[in-house]
Automatic annotation (TrEMBL):
SUPFAM superfamilies hit by this protein: Cadherin-like
Keyword Glycoprotein in annotation: yes
Name by which UniProt lists this protein: Cadherin domain-containing protein
Subcellular localization(s) per the UniProt record: Membrane
Predominant place of localization: membrane
Length: 336
């Protein structure tokens, strides 16, 4: 057939598919590509990708079969199903524990994923395995124990490369939430708290505040406070806020009754771990007691020529403190 006969014979192309990918140049006889062809979109994962079309001639009618084989090139990047891979891992998980990861898929059949790589880090390595069909998959392997208090979250980059030339690479971010376990004991800011309080101070007055902290995270760091093996007079005179650690007066305190209160306070976290501190409360005295004087009279003759400073009356006074003795007596009383 001569090219000049194509027009006379009304040559045209009829595609075997719904879309016509080629057109016929009647002047040159060339088969021309109309649109960009994507082997993966047309044939998926088939080994052989062939487009069928027919050239129809009229006068006389003839059909000529045309087969165009589409060859794959490495034009697609490997892709993960999700751009982020989320993992929740307890900080007490043993080393050498494995965590299977999402696989990446390359659209180019002849250039499937061949290599997985992990960004440098101190806790995990990557172990690449092969399935029975030859496809590759990766597992995350823990090599160094995790610590939620030091690194509550880790971010790693997982890369997948295919076997094409040049290689195409796809990536996904691995976000690891390190779950906390109760492995830290609460710590008080001070082991001993010393305070002074005036006797007869008003009820609900703040005496002191004990404070403890916990290096754990979340609910394991929540601390409650309580008395530990204290005497009954402490429970009658003081109140402890279990959430804030504030120690306040719950009853009257009297220096003459108790001069010093000692109490142990316990700080306990949600996991049951406890620490202890001591609070020493010194009660300061106030001049709130009048002297009690007992006078004893006796019948004793006094001679008219008795010398000066002869004892006429003797008295006994009971004082709680020296401060309660009147100033003139403090200066002259020989027994004081």
């Amino acid at each position: 057939m001569d090219v000049k006969d194509l027009s006379a014979w009304k040559a045209r192309l009829v595609s075997k598919s719904s879309k016509q990918h080629f057109q016929l140049d009647l002047h040159s006889g060339n088969l021309i590509l109309k649109d960009k062809i994507d082997q993966e979109a047309l044939c998926g994962q088939k080994d052989l990708c062939v487009l069928l079309t027919e050239m129809v001639l009229e006068n006389p009618v003839q059909l000529h079969r045309i087969e165009v084989q589409i060859e794959d090139i490495n034009d697609n990047f490997p892709q993960f199903a999700k751009s982020q891979i989320l993992l929740d891992i307890s900080e007490h998980i043993p080393t050498n524990t494995r965590f299977p990861l999402e696989t990446a898929h390359g659209s180019d059949r002849r250039n499937s994923v061949q290599i997985y790589a992990l960004s440098p880090n101190e806790h995990f390595t990557l172990d690449v395995q092969s399935d029975s069909d030859g496809s590759k998959y990766a597992e995350l392997v823990l090599k160094k124990p995790l610590d939620c208090e030091l690194n509550p979250q880790l971010s790693l980059i997982l890369a997948a490369a295919d076997g094409g030339i040049p290689k195409r690479t796809g990536t996904a971010e691995i976000i690891i939430e390190v779950l906390d376990t109760n492995d830290n004991v609460p710590q008080f800011v001070q082991s001993v708290y010393r305070v002074k309080v005036m006797e007869n101070s008003p009820l609900d007055m703040l005496v002191t505040k004990v404070e403890a902290s916990d290096r754990d995270i979340g609910s394991n760091a929540h601390i409650t406070y309580s008395f530990s093996q204290v005497q009954e007079n402490v429970l009658k005179s003081f109140m402890l806020n279990k959430n804030t650690g504030e120690l306040s007066l719950g009853g009257t305190i009297d220096y003459e009754e108790v001069g010093i209160y000692e109490m142990n306070i316990r700080a306990t976290d949600r996991g049951g771990l406890s620490a202890y501190c001591k609070v020493i409360v010194e009660v300061e005295d106030e001049n709130d007691n009048a002297p009690e004087v007992t006078i004893t009279s006796i019948n004793s003759p006094l001679l008219e020529d008795s010398p000066l400073h002869t004892v006429v009356v003797s008295w006994i006074g009971t004082l709680e403190t020296m401060a309660e003795l009147p100033a003139p007596l403090r200066q002259t009383c020989p027994l004081c």
